[in-house]
Amino acid sequence: EGQLTYFACDCDPDKISDDFPVLRELCLRLSRLPAGEALNLGGFLAEMRMPPFGAGGNALMLALAHVVRGYGERLTLYTDSTRADLCVIRSYENLAAIVGDPASKAVMGVRRVTQAQMAYVDLSAKAVDAPPLRHGEARTLNQVYDALQGWWNAIPPVARIPELYAPQEQKEIKAFVSAMTSGLCAGEDRFEFLLVRLPALYAGAAVDNAMTEEHAKRYAEAFAADVKRLADGRRRACTRLAEVVCPVFGAKGDMVACGRA
């Protein structure tokens, strides 16, 4: 068996040789996309097949595969311009289906993620005891989402009941539970949930790429406080149950001991 060598895929058009015109053009157009806009990928592929490019299927496949690898999770691909359905690329066959479809309406966009936003999601992941990173490894948004989902699924349903908490805490707990339920259980876009919905919960208003390092720290600390409160929810529920049941059996006996335990 030979040695495997991995290379990073650079999507900076200024660093891509003119020997790869389709790839360079695709990276150039993606780099020039205004925030929130998307590239008509179907139209781009059709254009690349025509002069002066005259690209065949292999060149188109390689260019598309390069940007998928280079942009990673920041790249968004939808089946059409409504952006209602994500187009998942996990295999050669997925790429071939897009390139081989002459009537493809797929659109492609790039999400801009700042260092402050990444700092925020990393701190949030640590709050739910996400697995530690290996040396030199960067935490991805998908890893953070999976960590939050695993933590949330492990929280007993009873611990999510707002009335279990002190009156002054109930409004915040209710908002937190609502955000987590809709974001993790209803199939909401992962980027939207991590970078918009959760920070807005603690900012009190919509947030955007203007998040600062100070904001990131404050939002993450507030999130960690909510995580800690819900982790204590099961104990609160047991205490409430013991307070109701114990008087029925008197102030002494095994039930009292169990309740206190």
Q: How much is the average pLDDT?
A: 86
Helicity level, as a percent range? 55-70%
Order of helices and strands: HEHHEHEHHHHHHH
Shape: elongated
Quaternary structure type: single chain
Note the beta-strand portion. Answer: under 5%
The structure class reads: mainly alpha
The low-confidence runs, each spanning 5 or more residues with pLDDT under 50, are none
Q: Largest sheet, described in full?
A: 3 strands, antiparallel
- CA-CA gap between termini: 59 Å
Number of strands: 3
Rg from alpha-carbon coordinates: 25 Å
Number of H- or I-type helical stretches: 11
Strands in their spatial order, largest beta sheet: 1-3-2
Q: How would you describe this protein?
A:
- It is a single chain.
- The mean pLDDT is about 85.
- By secondary structure, the protein is mainly alpha-helical.
- Helix 1 crosses helix 3.
- The protein contains 11 helices and 3 strands; from the N terminus they run αβααβαβααααααα.
Per-chain topology:
Elements: H1 21-31, E1 39-40, H2 41-49, H3 57-71, E2 75-78, H4 92-99, E3 107-110, H5 115-127, H6 141-154, H7 167-185, H8 190-203, H9 213-231, H10 233-249, H11 254-260
Antiparallel strand pairs: 1-3, 2-3
Quick recap of the structure?
This protein is mostly helical and 261 residues long. The protein is 56% helix and 4% strand. Strands 1-3-2 form a 3-stranded antiparallel beta sheet.
